[in-house]
Design goal:
Four copies of one chain form a homotetramer. Helix content of chain A is 30%, strand content 22%. Chain A contains twelve helices and 14 strands.
């Protein structure tokens, strides 16, 4: 890998959906990134030509990075987003799923590397759905995908925000002891629904016990992520997950109450050890330690534990015996950092570091 | 039963722990009750002799009932609470569990009927732990208990607030199809912890994934409630429950995400039918329909469904297949009405109506 | 006045904007009303012909009244809303201000009595802007207005939700001691912005220090309400008001911090006495006592005091000297009951009782 | 001043009240401070001898700094806190005001420099009450104070959290145009009441319109801060302030709605210019720009603007004409950083940099 810390020229990247919640998070997190510099920002036709700082309804607590504030927004209109207009090699996509499918495909065909947080292509046979600490081997699907597009471009996706927290917390257990059954109840933050998203009249002092489409994603995406790469295909993992999803009046942070059953029985120390041993790797957004098990039984909590390792770690706690399955515990992750924009950036970093880009 | 609607003299009742959250709810709910009139209010030694309205930190939205506002508070000191001082036949106990055990026992020995919301005596062999729609037959333990105390007094208890919601939602299913396994995640309101209870700095925009002692109660109390009365003993039901309890920033209303497995397999309509058929009975606090199944998959919600039948009904919703156990759904109940003071009053009404008093 | 409590036929009323937040509140509050029965419900063209219970996103905690649940929604399209289609004599309008102006005028011309909560016609010279405890004499503008429309129809309006609370709290002081200057800071509930209204991402754990158009209304509407009816015109009152408006994470209830200066100096007892003496009148929605002064300096609070007199009273508290103006205090009112739908219903009741209808 | 950025030995400091909310904030903020290193931590007798990380109920989102985590807590018992036991030259005091008065005085007598956030000594004639951007000249009171104690020790205080925000926002206006009258309504965060502080049952979805003692502080402390140092005395400023204080369900950040009247009339640009010109100075905790005026009329907001300049700046917005006084606007500051621990640290930095220490 080139030494990007001293490199003269960073990789130019673009942000698709730059005015939305995920787009804003991309812009905020990529500030001063050692590998990447934002060269293009794009949104829907109605934003075209406007100065970013004057047009965006900025919702991040940190100010708009100065180099982006003055940029003109380009249109995500497929015709407009040709290589002639974009300077970027990599496009981070925070596009709404209503339009992400078509735009991302077009961009891949046109030779761009699309690092997407949208759900549209996640389950495609030749699209990697990757959490790099778990299944970086799936990036080898890229080769196959390039053939499909007949270009140097490709699409790489990260999972749903709840899935990332769940999969990271479960993977070390799955790998060592073989998961059979998982029942999870989620308590998901409002930021997961984007902006304006959830009406305050629906959630202030309230619980909404349903999030459309969410349970399906939680029950299927991990099977692909935990799957084995066999002969240029992913063989899905053979475990069963049942999810019950709730929206709660929390700003950031998805909290998961998880029960699980394993093939090989494990004791408490062995499970915690498996978490401690999950390997991270050496890129800017990678946490030093991926999973932090907290001994205090009142933890993890969004207010206290969300920003562990800048929001890129998952915290777990309160591991105890389950009367029905084997064990139960709480897991917490930052849904817009580890669960969305940060996940995509981590994927991009991995690809750069491992010469996919 | 005497016709209390026209009766000249109501039954005199006392409130133990009258300044606490549950005590206040008793006083609020008993206003204009057709069977009962409050004649005694008692609290800890430090409140003795004080005028209720001047001393209490009243937290109910309705004003203090006029007849109680001017009453003098008596001491719950056991010596003081002799029959000489109390005018009441029935004592509703909202005492803190630190002192409830001893005081309630003393009162029963002294001949009072103690209707308690405290946990101390719930699991005693000869103390009824009753939700009258489920196990009113357990009231026959009273006879045995009177022998123990050698008095006409006795103690009757209602379950923990989360247990009441869970047990009501599960009982019709258990009775018809035989429950084997239940996994439940609770999202519990702050009012369940009393006043001042949970610090705002711990819960505003946060989730606390642990409530001391709560999971144990949820995993054991239903086994007694669903138990069979056999030869003056309760034979505990043979099902397994696993609970994960969370405190959420909701004022009133415990929301439960429940998965369950039955002996006899049931379809969706049969389960809903079983809920619809749970019998209520004809007393002032009894809901007309005990369980309301809501078709809208975004329901039940605390903000919208909590006061169904004045807070005495349980609402359920979003019944759907579970990948691991058989079915999953959401249940909601009002923790301080159906789950506490209202539950105790319902027990007392049942006892009056069925000539136990 | 006819004796409506025993009357065989109630007055038929219609609800314009029946699917919105104010419309829902009208429907909820008018359940079993002794004077009125809902005969028509109307909304935008896209709702036309749909069954109410199947179409509305009902947000009230009480269920949809049975007689309305099955009704078909009519269109508020002006052509459709001719007298041929509507059975009602009175139309309660909870229309969005974008369309209220034109529709309400058309209906008045067509002979309907429009009782409106919308802001569009409030400041019109011949339209009464009335809080009946304050300025019922302004209803005499109706005569003049009928001439304008050349019909038996007319429009009557109630003030903005914050204005109602402010005006009720200030009027007794103004009448007795003559207000010169008023500075008010509002802390307004999210329900004041309708549904979906305020995004949860904007208000959870936050304060928004600006509500478009609100300060202007608070600074002008009271001048009309406190005005004298002179020769068929309202002579605006001569006081100055300065308002600073904030949105806060409270569901219902506008809290106002008010400082004021009077012509004639008053002491604390005299001010409280003036509040106690504000007259209510004898109709179903009229509070027995309009203003409740609470002695506890931590009151009034939305959680504890909002439903005083079913939400139709204003509560005040913490009256104390101001270093700059004369006195300062807190006032609280229920913004969707006393401040909106309930205010309109009270106006309609007054008109019925006083033979305007 | 010595060059502390390269200095071999930092100044040893101690934290009085190390387990409380302010004490925790001191410890959190002082991590890696270029001037100071924590050498002593002290709390009440009951904490004596315990390991900090095992004993404290840590409420900061950042982990306990490693060098403090393992420290033994000393007792704040006055006898124990003699110079023999403490290694520190400076003591940062986050003591509860119930005990702060006596302990701080004793420490000053014993020769320590006490930088206190407590209210006890703020209004003492010879104790500086300082916001260094405003009245660093008041530090000259130290000389007089040393005489009183007959030691090298002294006490320096920072104002109440709301006062700091108010005083910073008003001072540039006062200096240029002469303030006569100020009316302020505060909306104060729960963290201002410490931990456990405000019960969640009192504030979730609620407003509490009274904070004991707060209005008095806001109405008097600024008069000392804006005062002139004349012949070793502070001559209080001659302006009038009236405050109405409210607790709101916001975690951090006091929002103030302020109206003011000046001697010399100013236009909008002049006022904003005065804010822009308030000088900061060159120490680690000093913001680059003290007051940030935000053009967007929906700002400042706690969620978006609180951490401006790491929480050490004050943000203002929505400056507009007031109908009664001259102008009105919103101000926001971080109550536990700029308003408490950060304010004390800034005072200490100023003293070091200017050779008082």
């Amino acid at each position: 890998m080139p030494d990007y810390s001293n490199m003269n020229r960073k990789i130019k990247v673009g942000i698709l959906g730059c005015t939305g919640a995920v787009g804003q998070k991309f812009i905020s997190l990529l500030k001063d990134h050692p590998y990447f510099e934002i060269s293009d920002i794009a949104a829907s036709e109605s934003s075209k030509g406007k100065i970013y700082s004057e047009h965006v309804n900025w919702k991040e607590a940190e100010a708009i990075p100065e180099d982006v504030a003055g940029m003109k927004i380009k249109s995500c209109n497929i015709e407009d987003l040709s290589s002639r207009i974009l300077f970027s090699r990599i496009l981070f996509s925070g596009l709404d799923s209503k339009v992400a499918g078509e735009i991302e495909e077009k961009m891949a065909r046109a030779g761009f590397i699309v690092i997407s947080n949208s759900r549209n292509h996640r389950m495609n046979e030749d699209v990697p759905l990757v959490i790099p600490e778990i299944n970086s081997s799936h990036f080898d699907l890229i080769k196959k995908q390039k053939t499909r597009w007949d270009s140097d471009g490709f699409i790489v996706t990260n999972p749903n925000c709840s899935v990332i927290v769940l999969a990271l917390a479960l993977y070390p257990i799955h790998k060592k002891f073989g998961l059979k059954n998982v029942i999870v109840t989620t308590m998901q933050a409002i930021s997961g629904a984007g902006y304006p998203g959830v009406s305050s009249m629906d959630i202030l002092g309230n619980i909404i016990p349903h999030i459309p489409g969410e349970e399906e994603k939680i029950e299927t995406e991990p099977l692909k992520i935990f799957g084995e790469f066999e002969q240029d295909k992913i063989k899905f993992a053979d475990l069963k997950i049942s999810a019950m999803c709730n929206r709660v009046p929390v700003y950031n942070g998805h909290t998961l109450a998880i029960s699980f059953e394993t093939e090989v029985k494990a004791n408490k120390d062995e499970i915690i050890k498996s978490w401690n041993e999950l390997k991270s790797f050496d890129t800017p957004f990678s946490p030093q330690k991926v999973i932090h098990y907290l001994e205090n039984e009142f933890r993890p909590q969004p207010l206290l534990d969300l920003i562990t390792e800048n929001g890129m770690a998952v915290t777990t706690g309160n591991l105890r015996k389950c009367n029905i399955l084997d064990w139960k515990f709480t897991a917490l992750g930052h849904n817009t950092i580890r669960g969305a924009a940060g996940a995509a950036i981590l994927n991009a970093e991995y690809l750069v570091k491992n010469n996919f880009i």
